Amino acid sequence: MKFYNIVIKYRLSIAIALLVFGIIVNVSSGFWPAFLLYLVAVILLFGYFFFGPLRLIQEHMESGNMEAAEKVLASVKWPNLLYKPIRSVYYTLKGNIAMMKQDFDGAEKNMKKGLDLGMPMKEAEGASLLQMGMLSMQKNDIRQAESYIRQALRKGLPDKENQAAAFLQLCSIMMTKREFRAAKEFFRKAKALKPTTPQIVDQIKQIEKYISRIPG
């Protein structure tokens, strides 16, 4: 696995070296002895331009190394050449990193690009729509936030933590709109999922302090 990651990281340099070596072999011994070198070089070049280094990016993000993930993303010089589903993931990852840096405009721009290209899985699309809803909340665009979050729930979310987060966001939106009965229903759904993420658990505790006292 580590060897494979090294190949992904350096495949452009390896491909160029193989091409040069292939040309030397071609000149000295003919085409067929150099054929395998050319073939491997072409496969590596194809992988570099059409698949990119996303495997390395995901590895860094899973370990929480955002700086390393951002450097790998920056190494993609021609994202439009990436295979369409991979290009969608590329822009989504860029959006996630921008959101972590509180660059909400950059996050929205990149995540919209990812959604427009189509996500490889419905759950991934739902998670992206949920993040778009949270971005809209940050910008106080309540109407757009509600639209995105409802779409996220329809598309499907990957786990109960994301589902609970979506219901809590809708609870907050309904309270802002003074639709208290709906707010209580969304809060009940969020609590019933029994999420364990500390931020979500804390949000439930905070809302629970006063939601029983509101009308509806």
Describe the protein's topology.
Elements: H1 2-29, H2 31-50, H3 54-62, H4 66-74, H5 84-100, H6 104-117, H7 122-138, H8 142-155, H9 160-176, H10 180-192, H11 198-211
Helix pairs in contact: 1-2, 3-4, 4-5, 5-6, 6-7, 7-8, 8-9, 9-10
Structure description:
It is a single chain. The chain is an all-alpha fold and 216 residues long. The chain has two domains: 1-50; 56-211, Tetratricopeptide repeat domain (Serine Threonine Protein Phosphatase 5, Tetratricopeptide repeat, Alpha Horseshoe), CATH 1.25.40. Helices cover 80% and strands 0% of the residues. Helix 6 (104-117) packs antiparallel against helix 7 (122-138) and helix 8 runs antiparallel to helix 9 (160-176). The protein starts with a helix and ends in a 5-residue tail after the last helix. The model has no long low-confidence stretch (mean pLDDT 90).
Quick structural summary:
This protein folds into 2 domains: 50 residues; 156 residues, Serine Threonine Protein Phosphatase 5, Tetratricopeptide repeat (Alpha Horseshoe).
Structural class assignment: mainly alpha
Overall shape: elongated
What's the level 1 CATH class of the largest domain?
Answer: Mainly Alpha
What is the number of strand segments? 0
Query: Low-confidence runs (pLDDT<50, min 5 residues)?
Result: none
Main β-sheet description: none
CATH topology of the largest domain: Serine Threonine Protein Phosphatase 5, Tetratricopeptide repeat
- Compute the CA-based radius of gyration: 23 Å
Considering DSSP H and I runs of 4 or more, what fraction of the residues is helical? over 70%
The CATH architecture term of the largest domain is Alpha Horseshoe
Approximately what portion of the residues adopt beta-strand conformation? under 5%
Terminal-residue CA separation: 56 Å
Could you state the CATH homologous superfamily of the largest domain?
A: Tetratricopeptide repeat domain
Task: Enumerate how many helices there are, as a single number.
Answer: 11
How many domain regions? Answer: 2
**Average predicted local confidence, pLDDT:** 90
What is the chain-wise order of helices and strands? HHHHHHHHHHH
